[in-house]
Amino acid sequence: MAMTRVRIEGLPHQASKGELVRWLAETAQVSGSRVGRIERSGNAATVELPEHEVGRLLSKLDGAMFQTRRVRVRLDAGGSELRNSHARGGEDWFAQLRQWLEWEAEAEREQIESQSSAREGTSLRNLAIRSDDVGLGGRLLLSLGKPDPHKPLPPHAFQPGSPVLLRVDSADAPPGIRGIIAQRTPAALTVAVDVPEDGLPDGDRWRLDLAYDEVARQRQLAALDRARLARAERLAELREVLLGEREPVVGPEPEVVFFNTGLNPSQQAAVKQALAAKDVAIVHGPPGTGKTTVLVEIIRQAVARGESVLACAPSNLAVDHLLESVIRKGIAAVRLGHPARVSPELHDSTLDELAQHHPDRVQARKLVRQAFALLKQAGKWTRAKPQPGERAAMRQEARQLLGDARALERRAIERILDGAKLIGATLTGVDADTMGQRVFDWVILDEACQATEPACWIPILRAKKVVLGGDHCQLPPTVLSDAASKAGLIVSMMERLVDRFGPLITRRLNIQYRMNQAIMQFSAQEFYDGDLHADASVAEHRLVDLPAVAADAMTEMPVRFLDTAGASFEEEPEPDGPSRRNPQEARQIVAQVRALIDHGVPAGEIAVIAPYNAQVRLLREQLRDIDGLEVDSVDGFQGREKEAVLVTLVRSNSEGEIGFLGDIRRTNVAMTRARRRLFLIGDSATLAQHPFYQRMVEYLESIGAYGSIWEEMA
User: How many domains in the chain?
Assistant: First the structure.
């Protein structure tokens, strides 16, 4: 019988091999005769199990309870015989995704190492533990600062949510403990860590180092294995559809009573498509078309039917935006994830806050404190040598207390989640520790085109039906590895499915409520087959229509392109980095911003966008005196809008090199953030080497929006 190795994590330290065998039999009906070698190490075990049953076993075991703990179960990294044993059910595709993830992890490690070598504040040393507290999941919250509490921390790169490695600051220190930054103040960082069963290592001084996100990567790898190995279950059926091996099933269009009676026909069609779909539906939302409005309506329809919904997105910001929109409609939600990463408006909806005052959680905190006190006492003997076995007894008692606390906390969490019809989390924030083996009637993935495919599979494991919302004509996923990007990791699952199934599962929204039609029209032609239209409420609106804004060409014209060709507005490399900037373009942008403000446009309604971070930094410095003005990269403005947007395209050189402006989706984002006024500045002689920018210049000329820098300098 062919065997493969499975890794089980999160076990009690004292769990025996016999208890493991009994648990496998009770939980997954695996008889002892079918269990091979078992290797124990700390709170993990590696178990040999029948290869032909691994898909079923992963589904049964991952997120199941072992005594008082939820365990995580995945293929062992060292036991990959199964991965290359045969090519069925999309195994070649999943093997590719795994390889790309490995390349991406390596690129992330290299980035952190290069930051460290550049002394960019990725390490803090000589830290003292100021205080400790207990967080959700029995995690220890450690406040770390300088030994002198009056001294602030030096400049550093640690932010709430940053993965870190905590260790004793000495040459012979034991291995570090992984954690997450929970809070940042000028004088201290609070770190959430899972405490080893024997307590923290002894040490008076500690160090923190930024770490790459190993937890997120492991969850993605585990999800790919689960999806690949699924057999004779709903996940296997969904996998066949999502890999394009079987056509999705779409039922008849339902009769729908809409909660939102203001939906336009394309929005209504998207809601009906999602309700009719049996496997997967896609809401394609070009800029300003109300994609979130559609997803909110879908969620309201599902909840009204008594169905459960898991709403996810690749970023905390996107998850929060969707959940806030739903909660405003009167639907309660539970937000998973660290409170430090969640918007203040959702604080009361976080699992941490909901569990905070539950009686079981209050009692669990008391037990955890007692356990920590015992572990500290067992590690420090200052008066006399302990009696034989005394330390071991204390540690055993502490383990028992921690086990009891986990059981109480688990009960509190289960009751909260059992009562929730809508749960929200980032893609990689969906974990078995919290969610157990829950399956949802709907899994909704917002901003799906900004998510890499491996991350999407994490929530899909729990889906009966999947809805993806996004726009593959805007920003793709962020991928650090050039090799992984070129190989295909930059192509999102949604983009792949739109290409494969098209209108069978996709509904594109075609009325936008943001842009003056002159701002919209070029993107409509280039990216949306001409089928994007301005609602009458915005089609002709201009800056001059705003209160207290003076009338002249600047406020009456919705679009203006200032061509710098021939004026020697050359780009240059940033002095201390690889990014690029254009000082002459920056000066023109500064003048335009100040002119808009002089005309009465509020600074808070103006944004400056640059494709290069060096240009962003230069402009922020030159405009730092203007409160409320936003200057950011293209990535920073995805999904955002302002009344007036100024875009500096930066590239100007004799070689016609335009760098990543060649990814025209980035320019689509930049050009579609403005409501009433879009100002662009760039060198047509450089840009128009690319056909897209040649067509852009021709369009701007056709609507009378073209101007030369020579006219400005005359």
Answer: 4
Residue 54: give its domain's CATH number: 3.30.70.330
**Token pair 């991952």 in the structure block, residue:** 62
Residues 6+ apart with CB under 8 A from 195: 138, 139, 140, 177, 372, 375
Handedness of CA 22, 136, 215, 211 (dihedral sign): negative
Q: Is 290 left (phi over 0), alpha (psi -120 to 50) or beta?
A: left
Boundary-marking domain end, from 418, 439, 458 = 418
Give the per-residue SS3 of 193-256.
Answer: ECCCCCCCCCCCCEEEEECCCHHHHHHHHHHHHHHHHCCCCHHHHHHHHHCCCCCCCECCCCCC
Answer yes or no: are the C-beta atoms of 535 and 513 closer than 8 Å: yes
**How far apart are the C-alpha atoms of 216 and 506, rounded to whole Å?**
29
Residues 156 and 33 in one domain: no
**pLDDT in the model for residue 195:** 67
**3-class SS shares of the chain: helix, strand, coil, % to 5:** 45, 20, 35
Q: Give the whole-angstrom CA distance, residue 640 versus residue 531.
A: 22
Say what the pLDDT of residue 686 is: 97
Tell me how far CA of residue 411 lies from CA of 69, 264, 305, 415, in angstroms: 11, 44, 27, 6
Q: Which helix (H) or strand (E) holds 73?
A: strand 72-75
Low-confidence residues of the chain: pLDDT under 70: 77-89, 115-120, 136-138, 195-199, 379-388, 714
Q: How far is 232 from 100, CA to CA, in rounded Å?
A: 28
Question: Which DSSP state fits 494?
Answer: H
- Residue at which a domain ends, from 212, 227, 253: 212
Q: Bridge partners of 351?
A: none
Q: What is the pLDDT of residues 546-596, one digit of tens each?
A: 999 999 999 999 999 999 999 999 999 988 778 999 999 999 999 999 999
Chain-centre distance for alpha carbon 251: 32
Residues 8, 10, 13, 16, CA torsion sign? negative
Give 208's strand partners: 124, 166
- Cα 152-156-161 angle, rounded to 5 deg: 105
Instruction: Compute the distance between CA of residue 144 and CA of residue 126 in angstroms, rounded to an integer.
Output: 10
By CB atoms closer than 10 A (0-12, 13-18, 19+), residue 41 is exposed
Q: What's residue 120's pLDDT?
A: 63
pLDDT digits (tens, 9 = 90+) for 439-486: 999 999 999 999 999 999 999 999 999 999 999 999 999 999 999 999
Q: Please tell me the predicted confidence (pLDDT) of residue 340.
A: 74
Q: Are 648 and 589 in contact (CB under 8 A)?
A: yes
Q: Report residue 348 as tokens.
A: 């009361």
458 Cβ neighbours under 8 A, 6+ residues apart: 219, 220, 223, 427, 428, 430
Closest CA to 458 of 494, 500, 423, 426: 426
Give the global pTM: 0.86
Contacts of 417-420 with C-beta under 8 Å, sequence gap 24+, read 417/334, 417/351, 420/308, 420/332, 420/333, 420/334
Token readout for 475 is: 């920003």
| Cα separation values, 621 from 21, 37, 514, Å | 64, 62, 29
Domain coverage including residue 542: 517-711
Judged by DSSP in three states, 452 sits in coil
Spatial distance between the Cα atoms of 525 and 528, rounded to a whole number of angstroms: 6
- For residue 197, what pLDDT is reported? 62
Same domain, 69 and 127: no
